[in-house]
Fold these 4 entries.
Entry 1:
Amino acid sequence: MPELNTNGNIQFKKEGDKYFISIDKRDTSPMYLTVGLSYIYNDTYSVDKVSKALKELNAYKAVKVVCFEDSYAYHAEMYLVNAEHFKYTFYKLMDQLSTLKKELADYCSSSSGVVRSSSGTSESLLPIYGIDFNTTESAVKAMNYTEKKKEDDGSCRYVINSCWVYTKDGKVRKIIIGSYHQLPPNFQQLGFDRSRSYNQWVEFLKSIGFQIVQQYDAPTIEKGKGTYKNYFKADFRAKNPDSDYTVYFNFSGFDVPNADTPMTRPFMSIEPI
């Protein structure tokens, strides 16, 4: 049963480990939240071994290993605009903390000091606000949506926290996140909220396990489009080999003279295979 500890943090147990949830009193809008657990150094997990593992273990995850003078900790940190969103990311963060614990155990028990990754760099974008392609339309209707609209093809569009969720024949068929839509918390954790060039976006997607499976328009720059110059456009479809969905990415932006110039994040449409 969760309880408050002497530091005012929420404390709970899972599989014998004692976790905490801490909310920074200085950052409240949006709130800054940490989920984690800590241990004292010992012969297996010495300060030297744990410190040497940081560079590899902290390279890509939404969770980190942190070293202190007498102890080390696993931290998952995030900003939340709405506390309600935490329930959509909590279990994913707990899974990542468990994976990170296993990888540090592999590192510290290995004579070569190499992490045998159980997850690679593959990351899932689903669920989004608790929705994936196993979610029924009736379950979507029970959620807190702000708009429902019937589309010409017989599907229904529900707006849930600015994402567009399309249903048809009782099932979720597509989830759209526009370039200027509010990103789901798990997308923010992965780094989708950062400004990148087209080439950097391609490398970023590879780093989290996605491969381009179909290129539609190769990067193109139109020198004049209305009052603007250097209109950049490109689009492709990508897939994580372990997933049962694909993601369509559409890039467009003005005053982008080449594929190495930072631009707004892409329009994304996630669809089941």
Entry 2:
Amino acid sequence: MQTIKLLVDNSAISEAACDRAYQLTCIQGLRKVPDATLILGSAFHRIAQRTINEDPKTQEAKLQLVQEVCYEYNLSDFDKMLRLSMAFAAGRSRLPPILRRTDLRPYTETKFDVLYKTVERYGLLFEVHLVGTIDYIGYKDSIQLVDYKSFAGKTPSDKAKEYAMKFQLSFYAWMLYRYSREIIHDLINLHAECDAALIQARYAIMPHNLPMPSLYIGNPQQFNKPYFEEVQSIVDNAIEEMIAIHNLGDKLAVRNGMTNDKCKYCAYTNGCLSRNESRELEFFNTFERSPYDPLSFN
């Protein structure tokens, strides 16, 4: 029996809302070309991670950090990245205290890959892995996770309301609730099992289109056991949908999008609009392909 490792992260759950988008991205491995905003967001994540990990003290060290990140992401606007770096450094004191390992390394960009269950379906064995990266895990009377976002075009408070409607924080918080010891490997002086009420999550939002940006810390989202039961139901339903799409094999999935605003921003829309399978395939073949691997994202 063929075994398929099914990688389930927040993005895959989102893509599974459209059979076609999930099939192209997570099964066939089409890689969407990152735009300038996405690249800048990744660079901001790297600056935040390195600022906490390295804690540069001198101006020379801070400048070198930004220079290295600009080189890594091929960014030419050093001044903009320096402003974002300075804004994050100034605002990080308002984040919950960082949780540290026994060797004092902080829990930043914490990756997880947990075997959730195995499912036998359609003559295939699916090993379902829950995967992802948590930007920041803090602790102050409770486990507090933080997800970084950068944006342009709206006020931070408006953007925070928009992000609050997304599933990402709920998914990460549920993971910490269910798999705290697998994700926080050396859990010390914390509860043996995480109580749902002792987990909080929030966004740290950085506007990158302002001359003097500042880090906006969103209000913490709190949870309880019934809420996490609902999250698990959403995850399980998405997994069933993913498995059904895998069963299509080489057959192109139906377009069950084109009915909402999300389609306007989908990289595959032009192919779907053609309404001609040969033209659709021609369009989709213009994308680069590589195996879907959420843990490689940065």
Entry 3:
Amino acid sequence: MSWDLLLAASTAFLMLPALITLGDDQARIPRWASGAMMVGLVGATAALFGLGAVFGATVTGVEVVLWGLVFWMRGKK
């Protein structure tokens, strides 16, 4: 197994909290927390693309979108 696929699988596992949060209408996440997560994941996505880890970067990019949805739909001030 390549390191890129291992990284993609690990990052995909980390999508669960965002998916659970989006599925729960009562869930609220502070915007500073979901925003900080997005900023960190954008940096990780850029670094992974730069390193040539395309699968890991793509999965991490999808996670950025999920946390963006959490920020928008489930954020609290």
Entry 4:
Amino acid sequence: MTLAEPRAALAAVLSSVTGVETVEAQSGKHLLRSGYGWVNVGPTTPSRFGGVCNVTLTAVIVLGSDKSQADESLNTLSVACVNAVTTAETFGAFNASADPQELPITLPNGGEGTLYVLAVTITTEVS
């Protein structure tokens, strides 16, 4: 399995979770609206099995800039996302986790704010 395949599979699986609108397989410029997200590629390390590597993928799902709404979304999405990626038959995910994060952002008026996101991280094998 190449790197593109688990990225696309992770995006598709998470996009099917209730409360998630769309997760894109590629990182880059995206909508910073609740329910939208993208997949980032993390470290790639040798596997103990020859010919394959372990890769860490993190899907960042935007929960919004309102803390109370983000907390409400977190209550349902955290477990739902981990369950979705660990039961999907499209790829062998292990070490799955969901980590709420607060990202500092610069607002259009130059002020500062916070964007709340859920980082869903998995490890899978690629060749």
